[in-house]
Design goal:
Helices cover 42% and strands 22% of the residues. It has helices spanning 2-26, 32-44, 76-82, 115-118, 217-223, 231-291, 296-304, 307-312, and strands at residues 55-58, 68-75, 84-86, 89-91, 95-98, 103-110, 124-126, 131-137, 150-153, 158-161, 175-179, 185-189, 195-198, 202-209. By secondary structure, it is α+β, with helices and mostly antiparallel strands. The strands form three sheets. Strands 1, 2, 6, 7, 8, 11, 12 and 14 form an eight-stranded antiparallel beta sheet that branches. A four-stranded antiparallel beta sheet has the order 3-4-10-13, with no helix packed on it. Strands 5-9 form a two-stranded antiparallel sheet. The protein has a domain at 29-209: Chondroitinase Ac, Chain A, domain 3 (Sandwich), CATH 2.60.220.50. The longest helix is centred in the C-terminal third of the chain and has 61 residues, at 231-291. It binds 2-acetamido-2-deoxy-beta-D-glucopyranose (4 copies). Residues 38, 61, 63-64 line the site of one 2-acetamido-2-deoxy-beta-D-glucopyranose.
């Protein structure tokens, strides 16, 4: 039985890990870094006669409507000493960048209805748009494909206060999600209903685990509009099905494994019994040779007797 439990525990661990790796492998999608580069270019275009410390909203190309961007140029020394409030981001004192830049630009992104396109998160749905905060050197305001500066909150974390967060569905718990620039995804607790913290730059949002599978695929087809942008919901449905499927598959596998373990157990037991019987048979045969060629009935009697113990009783 110990073996059975160990196998089951092992299976649970394997399923859990495959789910975790699934989470980090699928997001952000491969297009996210290219989008960051494109939005940096478009955000910098808002700097015509820029004043330091003033945020400028910028235009996105027409194929990206629904996304909002802004750019804010700052002296890094004053940012470190004073912090800044920039849209939803409340940056405290102590923010450092590396390599050092005398002036830097903070690019703000609000991915709006395109959040799930660029940051798909299987098994979760967004309660707020994905927001991005990215830092670049401000030395050349017409530069493209700039490398990111590494931004760190060295004292208190950056506070992100999301606006218009959708209500949390009953029975679910909202989580902050952080997409690091290296592609890793972290979930953490939401504070005061709509706030998340960050210690570095990246992309942030609030999510909940998706509820049980929505109506059957047929109904979804009837309801969904024929627009190419309508694929998001269907995709998340199919993801729900994949999760349900893998859970059922996991259960079936556990049952099969349990069966197998039990069978092996039984088989071993039988084998053991057979060996004991065989040993007994040999004993009988020896016994019979010493006693004489008596038939089976007397052999049966010999087998059931506790021969060895009784022989040694004084
Ligand atoms: C959108 O348009 C811009 C400029 O025309 C182009 O550089 C970019 O590749 C396009 N992006 C997408 C995601 O289609
Ligand atoms: C997002 O909304 C804009 C209008 O605000 C629309 O043009 C665009 O097609 C939408 N994109 C998606 C992916 O739904
Ligand atoms: C700024 O970047 C642009 C585009 O990469 C380049 O053409 C220009 O020479 C750069 N200016 C300076 C002063 O480096
Ligand atoms: C995400 O979690 C990992 C592991 O717990 C941790 O090493 C990493 O620093 C976290 N990243 C963020 C942005 O919190």
């Amino acid at each position: 039985m110990g073996l059975l439990f160990r196998s089951l525990a092992m299976l649970v661990v394997v399923i859990w890990f495959s789910r975790l790796s699934d989470l980090s492998a699928q997001s952000p999608s491969g297009q996210a870094p290219a989008l960051d580069a494109l939005l940096q270019d478009y955000a910098y275009r808002a700097f015509v006669h820029p004043k330091t410390g003033v945020p400028y909203d910028a235009q996105v190309p027409s194929n990206l409507t629904g996304i909002e961007i802004a750019a804010l140029r700052l002296r890094s020394g004053s940012l470190y000493r004073r912090g800044v409030v920039y849209k939803e981001f409340n940056i405290p004192v102590g923010l450092t960048e590396s390599p050092y830049a005398e002036r830097l630009v903070l690019v703000y992104q609000n991915l709006g209805n395109r959040s799930m396109v660029y940051y798909p998160l299987p098994g979760y749905s967004y309660l707020a748009p994905v927001l991005g905060l990215l830092a670049y050197d401000a030395i050349n305001l017409s530069a493209k494909n700039l490398p990111l500066l590494d931004l760190r909150a060295s004292r208190d974390p950056i506070n992100i206060e999301f606006q218009d967060v959708k209500p949390t569905p009953d029975g679910t718990i909202a989580k902050c999600v952080t997409f690091d620039l290296d592609g890793s995804v972290n979930l953490s607790n939401v504070r005061s209903g709509n706030a998340c913290s960050a210690v570095q730059q990246g992309h942030f949002s609030i999510v909940v685990e998706s509820l049980a599978p929505a109506p059957s695929p047929v109904t979804t087809n009837n309801v969904s509009p024929p627009s190419p942008g309508g694929g998001g919901k269907k995709k998340s449905n199919s993801k729900t099905w994949i999760i349900v499927g893998s859970v059922l598959g996991g259960l079936a596998l556990s049952a099969l494994l349990a069966f197998l373990v039990l069978w092996v157990h039984k088989y071993k037991e039988r084998k053991h019994l057979e060996e004991m019987e065989k040993a007994a048979d040999v004993g009988e045969a020896l016994h019979m040779t010493t006693v004489g060629d008596t038939k089976a009935p007397s052999a049966m009697v010999t087998r059931t007797q506790p021969t060895i113990e009784s022989e040694y009783v004084p």
